[in-house]
Known about the structure:
The chain has 14 helices and four strands.
Amino acid sequence: MSNYHFTSHGDTETRSAARDLQITPETPCLCASVRDIYRENNLLFPVISLQWFADDDDAPGKTEDPTDRKLQKLREEGQVVKSQEIVSALGLLLPALLLLFLAPFMLRTCVEMIRFFFTRVTELDPVKDAVIAAVFFRYLLILAAPILAVAMFTAVFSNIVQTGFLFTTKPITPDFTRVMPRIGQFFKRIFSIDGIYNFGKSILKMAIIGAVSYILIRSDLEKLLNLQKADLWQGFTTVSWIAIKMLIIASILMLILAIPDYMFQRWRFRERNKMTHYEIKEEHKQYEGDPLVQSRIRSRFRDLLRQNLQAAVPKADVVITNPTHLAVALQYDQKSMPGPMVVAVGADEMAARIRQIAQDHEVPLVENKPLAWNLYNDTSVGDIIPVKYWNMVAAILSKVWFLNEERRRKLRDQQERERLLNREVS
Length: 426
């Protein structure tokens, strides 16, 4: 077997073929080596590298869908999902329909314009009389303004429907890096997925227009052949009707074709802007901060929260529990508070901490699962509880205050007895 040397180091497909054929790189002749490979393996067509079809943004490591932040950034740069076929189809269909309805008016205006100039052809001098230009532009505005207005409205409307209201100058900002031609990028763009898709779409559009034209002309072929016997007005109306039908039907078919095109553009947009795990991690770090720093901040916050619990829970009048998962500490001062206030709230470990502090300082614990869940979901530390819970909390506080008063009364009685006993002993 002959020895070959491949000078294209970037073509992985060629190197893979060389390994499969047990080729050793020695001879520095690329053309001869490729020709010999075809001859030895009876290849009729050249092997096209799949790298030609790869897009710059279709990197192998980009497997994750774009994040909301990246999509927002792309939108700010003017990169959004949009099908140009929708814009083109509507921009062709609506002006064509308007032209169909305004055709009699436009025809009368054209006849009036021609009559005006022909009747004054010997009276006015185009060089000296400025009225000729003024009249011409007046008629031009009357004829073209409706069509141009509808076309502009259609272009704006079809873009807003697809992308929403978006104003940015980034897409039209001059980029001088694109001035220099890049032959490699040009061929890569041609043989990419988008290039092949656009080529196939163009062929399909040409086929649709050709088929519509053929069918309509063939159906009215007899009328067209008899036009040589017809007068000028009949010939004009016949050809105009065939042309407007051709235009409207072709634009409707283009609009139908635009629906799958929009779906394809949406899929390609997400594929082009996929991200790697590293990019997602860096984006999260950029916007959310370093996870290690965030962990330290949360740890410090928990320490501060424990210190606050040590000061807040002993002031509470009662702690509502779940009894094990939730704990809500309430305080009420009739003179300074409009209603019971939440001084501490927590779940799981935090709830256990609140219960422990409450027991150490003899703050009553009341088990009420529905009330504990409602207060946990509807309130935060420092909030006055909603009015709808006042009656239920008032009943609990009344019972707690009664028990506290009983406990304090018993404590005072016990202290009085001990004082009398000490006096008798002395």
